[in-house]
Amino acid sequence: MNSFKTNTPKIPTSAVWLLTDISEYKGKQDLYTRQSPQALKSLLEMALIESTESSNRIEGVTVDHHRLKPLVIGHSKPRDRSEEEIAGYRRALDLIHKNHAKLRINAEMIQELHRLSRGESWDAGKWKEKDNDIIKKYPDGRVEVIFKPVSAKETPKFIEQMCLAYQHTVAQSKFPPLYAVACLILDFLSIHPFRDGNGRVSRLLTLLALYQHGFQVGRYISIERVIEQSKETYYETLNRSSQHWHQAKHDITPWLNYFLGLVLAGYKEFENRAGNVKPLRGAKTTIVENAIKSQIGDFGIADIERQCPGVSRPMIRVVLEQMRDKDLIKSTGTGRSAKWRKT
What we know:
The structure is a single chain. The chain has helices spanning 13-35, 41-58, 65-72, 81-99, 107-117, 155-172, 177-191, 198-212, 223-229, 231-242, 253-276, 283-293, 301-307, 313-325, and strands at 134-137, 143-147, 329-331, 340-342. It has two domains: 2-276, Orthogonal Bundle (Fic-like fold), CATH 1.10.3290.10; 283-342, Orthogonal Bundle (Arc Repressor Mutant, subunit A), CATH 1.10.10.10. The strands form two sheets. Strands 1-2 form a two-stranded antiparallel sheet. Strands 3-4 form a two-stranded antiparallel sheet. By secondary structure, the protein is mostly helical. Helix 3 runs parallel beside helix 4 (81-99) and helix 12 crosses helix 14.
């Protein structure tokens, strides 16, 4: 597809820095999620609510705030059209959270995400039947066409080509994974395959693709809310990077930098929130015990600290001594350089 029509992508230095920072945060995500899965459950619920609310609100779909949590978490029965779309988006999120490893990014999956997120709409899961334009409305009432997407007639073919190009790129490791995801989303939004709901499906597709590449920040932080908070920049960079897209002469850099900044902002917020989550009583002991049990050969306190962010060194010493008293481990030295080994 258009954004994949290059063998050697020229990734700007700014994007390389962002990719490096994201890689470091990704390396720490498992450490945080292992600390106390039960304690992080509150972050998961919060992300589900915020994602559903923000992604729909960007499209002008809102519900009473008191109804939001029952619809998202309690599975309350929708009362009107807006609530149907809220509940539908929640079902789409549920599909991705639980089955992302099994799902394949293809035309059928994209239609399924649209069908779920559009609730009971008559065109849910159906490609657009008429050509559509992306417009900009001015305060004085003027309307400007800023981009002409792919025609309705050519939409199925372009979506098929987009998915094949993405799958081939990922399989061949031609681009860095996040670069490939950015290309996928830009192409999807440039095709604009549905009459309505393209933005919501693009955000679901983003979450699914990130999951499949091991970037699970969207489980605990609402990527949709981060987009909503930077909505003006979101539309601006899309507009800049979609110019000359039909001729495959567009510049993906503005959109790429925004997209990578979006993922990085999510990870920074996750680290901040996860660091403030208080583990359940006794959870820290379990965390340290599991870290010790996973060691092979001699290990030191520093090795355990790296696997247990948020657990103090005195706490680690307490657990080491408790396990030593139970003859589960033994010390192979003394002082600051002391090492430990499982018995």
